[in-house]
Amino acid sequence: MHFPRIPRPASAMAFLALGAMGSNACAHGGHPMPVYGSFFDGFMHPLSGPDHLAAMLAVGLWSALSARRAGAQLLWAPASFAALLLAGAVLGLRGAATAAVEPMIATSLLLGGLLLASRLRMPGPAAALGVGVFALFHGLAHGHELAGGGSAWQTLAGMLAATALLHCAGLAAGWTLRRRGAWLARAAGAGVAALGAAQLLQLA
């Protein structure tokens, strides 16, 4: 599997932006999805919130940086995240609820950032399981935001399209930095972890 080369300045800017995400960003409550949305609304939603953006990019980055070689193992975590995100959203649309949604989302950022900073290697199934559990809670939050909207499925389709795009961007950027720019990847991971820690403190 080959990923396109990302120009070094552009890659650096993307990582610095990810690592510098403010700790004052609130979890989902800070940027609610329109009740009556569209495909475009759903597509823009993950791009408009630091928690969504950080989580989805971090999954792709970690997958590329921790993989031993190109191949299917690169896709275990991103595919699991997208699939369980969809499952959680469907459950949320059907009224499933849990008080652990916000803490789990914040925890996913904290742990995801630590995984990215450490470049910890895990077997594909284990990575898929760990990432998928947190993605389920991201999906539940989305489902509740979409509940009652007349265009819920269109909005969800847009959200999944943006999720896939962000995963691919993370994979491409991570692959570019496998042999250079290790400090930049670690800085980005530290930034994501700090964002998650800040959100957990806000929820305490």
Strand content: under 5%
Tally of separate domains: 1
Order of helices and strands: HHHHHHHH
Q: For the CA atoms, what is the radius of gyration?
A: 16 Å
Mean pLDDT: 80
Describe what you observe in this structure.
- The chain crosses the membrane at residues 51-67, 74-93, 99-117, 124-141, 153-176, 183-201.
- Residues 1-25 form the signal peptide.
- Pfam families: HupE_UreJ (PF04955).
- InterPro entries: HupE_UreJ.
- It comes from Verminephrobacter aporrectodeae subsp. tuberculatae.
- With 204 residues, the protein is mainly alpha-helical.
- It has one domain (35-203).
- Helix content is 71%, strand content 0%.
- The chain contains 8 helices and no strands.
- It has helices at 8-19, 39-48, 50-66, 76-93, 101-118, 124-146, 152-176, 182-203.
- It is globular, with a radius of gyration of 16 Å.
- The termini are far apart.
- Mean pLDDT is 80; it is low at 1-17 and 19-31.
